[in-house]
Amino acid sequence: MNELQRHNGILSLLEEKQTINVANIIESFNVSPATARRDIAKLDDLGKLRKVRNGAERVENQKRKWSPLNINSTEFYEEKARIAQTAADLCQPGDSVAINCGSTAFLLGQQLCGDDVQIVTNYFPLASYLINEDHDDVIIIGGQYNKAQNIFLNPAPNSLGGYAGNWMFTSGKGLTGAGLYKADMLTAVAEQQMLEQIDKLVVVVDSSKIGQRTGMLFCPIKQIDIVITGKDASPEVIKSIEAQGTQVILV
Predict the structure, then answer these.
(1) How far are the Cα atoms of 24, 45, 85 from residue 232, in angstroms, in the given order?
(2) pLDDT tens digits for 6-26?
């Protein structure tokens, strides 16, 4: 794991815990105390966290959350755009495609907009974009609107049993040889309801997520058909994923 990947992992930990100490970093990333303190100091200098005694705390409102209006300012935009284009190229005319939440998912929706594909989503920003752009075939999965995540959630078991698709594209906070991790349990549970209804599961994550283990295990790696990520992804983790039969596409 390189320094950039480790720094992103530290920031992901802070999203969950709000405060962490040097011991948390040592245990999570298998680094020395000196490296852990140096990482904290560098991220403090960049304004991405606040250094405190023997640890760090999250900086609130450190950046404007991305939206469809400022999508090109999201982190790793160029890499995510390449991932989205590669994912879109997998889809054939007439396919039914489930797309979940996140900036990469939105970019994928943009790529597919106007194509002869059915798009199934519970992600409000993407649904709004597709409708405004007059995409012909959009299915919005209903339920209660969750403002924090910009998605619709249906707590009823098997509420998605009537939907089926050729592809499901999803992302997460981390991907290892064990599987895909998601930080938000509500969105993860909603997406898990669709796993049995689709032909192929594709994980689209930028290279900083490779090797990270944050939140709950969404699905094991053997359940993932294809991973699309950046060329800077950890070679060791990629090798572990491919050894289990999952195709990896580096862009």
Answers:
(1) 25, 24, 18
(2) 998 898 888 778 899 999 999
E strand intervals along 53-164: 55-58, 96-99, 118-121, 138-140, 144-146, 151-153
What's the angle, vertex CA 183, arms to CA 177 and CA 188, rounded to 5? 85
Tell me how crowded residue 41 is: count the other CB atoms within 10 A of its CB.
12
Q: At what angle do helices 3-17 and 33-45 cross, to 10 degrees?
A: 80
Percent composition of the chain: helix, strand, coil (DSSP 3-state, to 5): 40, 25, 35
Mark 16-38 as b/e (b = at least 16 C-beta within 10 Å).
eeeebbbebbeebbebeeebbbe
User: What is the rounded CA–CA span in Å between residue 135 and residue 133?
Assistant: 6
Q: Is the pLDDT of residue 65 over 60?
A: no
Helix (H, G, I), strand (E, B) or coil at 203: strand
Contact 179, 217 (CB under 8 A): yes
Phi–psi pair at 125, nearest 5 degrees? -60, -40
Question: What ranges in the chain are assigned the alpha helix state H?
Answer: 3-17, 22-29, 33-45, 77-90, 103-112, 124-132, 185-192, 235-243
Sign, CA torsion 37/39/42/43 = negative
Banded pLDDT at 212 (limits 50, 70, 90): very high
Q: What is the pLDDT of residue 183?
A: 86
- From the centroid of its chain, how far is CA 108? 12
